[in-house]
Amino acid sequence: MAGLATASMTARPLFASAPDNIVLLSKRSEPLPSANTVTNMALIGAGGMGVVDMQTALTLGDVAVTAVCDLYEGRLNEAKKMWGDKIFVSKDYREIANRPHAGGRGCDGCLRSV
Q1: Domain range holding 71?
Q2: Does the structure show a pLDDT above 50 at 28?
Q3: Which residues make Cβ contacts (< 8 Å) with residue 62, sequence separation at least 6?
């Protein structure tokens, strides 16, 4: 039985030729348009790993922290110190999930580190 080490890793196209009404991403010369210029992110679990994960996301550019959830009040206070007083903080992740989308400073994505 062949393992992953002996498996072929050559990429094969999904279509031999693309139909006229389908634009393959590999054929696009310009970047995909973005609905927002900033990706609003929430963090669930503001312990050591969660903070490092969010800091890594922030290095990508055009990422903003909009909400943080943690059970410990001290971590929520530290999150406000790191990322600003305007972020929404809660001890209940459902409050973050039920917030309005990005137009209301909700979130486009969520990092979960629990």
Answers
A1: 35-112
A2: no
A3: 37, 38, 39
